[in-house]
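Internal tracking record. Fields below are filled automatically when a chain is submitted to the structure queue. Please do not edit lines marked as system-generated. If the sequence contains nonstandard residues, flag them in the REMARKS field before resubmitting.
Queue: standard
Priority: normal
Entity type: single polypeptide chain
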Amino acid sequence: MIRPLFLLFAIFSLPLFATVPLPEISDSEALQIGKKIWKNECNGTINGLTSWNQGENFASLGINHFIWYPLNEKKVFDESFPKLLLFLQENQVFIPFWLQKSPPCPWNNQAEFLNAVKNPNDKRMLELKGLLEKTIALQARFSILRLQNALPLMLEKVDPQIRPRITARFQLLAQIPAGLFALIDYVNFKGEGVLETERYQNQGWGLLQVLEEMKEAERNGALYQFSRAAEIVLTRRVKNAPPERKEERWLPGWINRVKGYLNYNLD
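SYSTEM-GENERATED OUTPUT FOLLOWS
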């Protein structure tokens, strides 16, 4: 039985709006969703579960590249890996002792992290990989829970007159299997779009911004409009990004990812 983590209500902060029911997802469907997200994020590889990208100051772990910062690093982006650890513990997963209190990342930079990855005798890295490999379905459940909590967070940040429009677009997509996957994937890929730190030139790139950018559509056209809006938002992010981040190198892959929502299947 998958038990939601009570602490996540504090983590995700939902004071004004209730969470939104999503279509029921079986354990087998959750596993398939997890595998699809894993393929989107890191090509479905074991090595991809433990990454540290060039130019980043954090590790990227699991099927959604959950962010994990070392101690004393500035946390610009939402740090999701410690929340995942709490969720796994609440669901009775054995967590290695050194991870049980959701510590900061023990590797201080990319070089240290990659050295540990390459070292076949690094105990902590072996335990970390083992944990990530055996919890694909639960990582998917965690991702689904994040989506369930996303709409209230987004509604807090928009003008009351816009809330019905955002809610309607969210709910329309959630009732379409491919649309539900797109929502799950995108909110874990680029966040809810509510954090002030996740802005370039005062413009965000999360799920909220995509739903705002969407054009109105009937059920049959909703997924296309979502994919198109995501491409616009991600392109704008790269245009607004500080030049030293060189985010243009990632844009083709990002666009392929959101265009892939139109060809959704779980095979």
